[in-house]
Automatic annotation (TrEMBL):
Pfam (any one): Aminotran_4
Classification via PANTHER family: AMINO ACID AMINOTRANSFERASE (PTHR42825), BRANCHED-CHAIN-AMINO-ACID AMINOTRANSFERASE 3, CHLOROPLASTIC-RELATED (PTHR42825:SF2)
Official protein name in the record: Branched-chain-amino-acid aminotransferase
EC number of the protein: 2.6.1.42
Length: 342
């Protein structure tokens, strides 16, 4: 390490810490510039930017992991790049070439190397690539210019005292995404719309709410801002299949781990909220926690408990340990999943 970032890695939460460098590239007159690292963590833009008024923006979240041997790796950044471009295209923003996206991530990690937490702390360097419409504009239309930025912040281990299940409630009051809306892309508008539903669930004593499909209100879609999976009584890994779910890279990685490492049957299909007893275990998955075990789900005033409200189920634990091991370089990864930052 070049210098000591002087951070208490063990007590780090999920919050913003200013690091030394971020990557910035500008799209103007139909093309991207070469991009550069900047020490300035403030952005300047037109007061009339589409990102500020019409939500023309998208983002990604991925992590850099310190391995036991001190080297640093990224986990499937190519998948983040591809998803980023699907989000960009959906909002009529220019795509960022996959190579440029990955190179930007690597540059930011390299330049902030001393902020990558030590192996064994569970802490990581979280990367936040984002794309915003900027430039002078008033009417509802795509922006004339765009900023692509990748910044990073060290974040603590998600589970400080070991993995513990949490309870969620089904919300029938709020929808997250409409069938042909923007639920399948990672755009800020989806998050803005979820703030109130989240606050409502927390006030009622739950970790977050679970959204049903907007059309029929019968099928599970997302668990807050994470994907759902369940393990059936006969050991199948089930995850919902819907065009309005954000395709989680953690979820697709877990599907692979379930099949290839644990030998489970894997299916993407409808998950009916009134048939939860088909599952012996359930969890929420995403980059932040890998897996949050679901203790119970409240629906129409009744709490349905899966494995336990206090203990993690054995299949969930194995899935978690395997993927976590892959991400930190302790378990052999499938080909192409790991990008070393040199
Ligand atoms: C980012 C996100 C996820 C998780 O995706 P990962 O690629 O696994 O981090 C799940 N649901 C929503 C709504 C998201 O925005």
């Amino acid at each position: 390490m070049q210098k000591d970032a002087n951070i208490d890695w063990k007590n780090l939460g999920f919050g913003y810490t200013k690091t030394d460098f971020r990557y910035i590239s500008i799209w103007k007159d139909g093309k991207w510039d070469d991009g550069k690292l900047s020490e300035d963590n403030m952005l300047t833009m037109s007061e009339s930017s589409t990102a500020l008024h019409y939500g023309q923006q998208c983002f990604e979240g991925l992590k850099a992991y310190r391995r036991k041997d001190g080297t640093i790796q990224l986990f499937r950044p190519d998948e983040n790049a591809k998803r980023f471009n699907r989000s960009a295209s959906r909002l009529l923003m220019p795509e960022v070439p996959v190579e440029k996206f990955i190179d930007a991530c690597k540059q930011v990690v390299k330049a902030n190397e001393h902020f990558v937490p030590p192996y064994g702390t569970g802490a990581t360097l979280y990367l936040r690539p984002f794309l915003i419409g900027v430039g002078h504009n008033l009417g509802v239309k795509p922006a004339p210019e765009y900023i692509f930025c990748v910044f990073c912040s060290p974040v603590g281990a998600y589970f400080k005292g070991g993995m513990t299940p949490v309870n969620f409630m089904i919300t029938e009051e709020y929808d997250r995404a409409a069938p042909h809306g923007t639920g399948d892309v990672k755009v800020g508008g989806n998050y803005a719309a979820s703030l109130l539903a989240h606050e409502d669930a927390v006030k009622k004593g739950f970790a977050d709410c679970i959204y049903l499909d907007a059309k029929t209100q019968t099928k599970i879609e997302e668990v807050g801002a994470a994907n759902f999976f369940g393990i059936t009584q006969n050991n199948e890994f089930i995850t919902p299949n819907s065009p309005s779910i954000l395709p989680s890279i953690t979820r697709y990685s877990l599907m692979h781990v379930a099949k290839e490492y644990l030998g489970l049957e894997v299916k993407e299909r409808d998950v009916y909220v009134d048939k939860l007893d088909e599952f012996k275990e359930a969890g929420a998955c995403g980059t932040a926690a890998v897996i949050t075990p679901i203790g119970g789900i409240e629906y129409k005033g009744k709490l349905h408990v899966f494995h336990s409200e206090t203990e993690v189920g054995p299949v969930t634990k194995k899935l978690y340990d395997t993927l976590y091991g892959i991400q930190f370089g302790d378990v052999d990864a499938p080909e192409g999943w790991i990008y070393e930052v040199k």
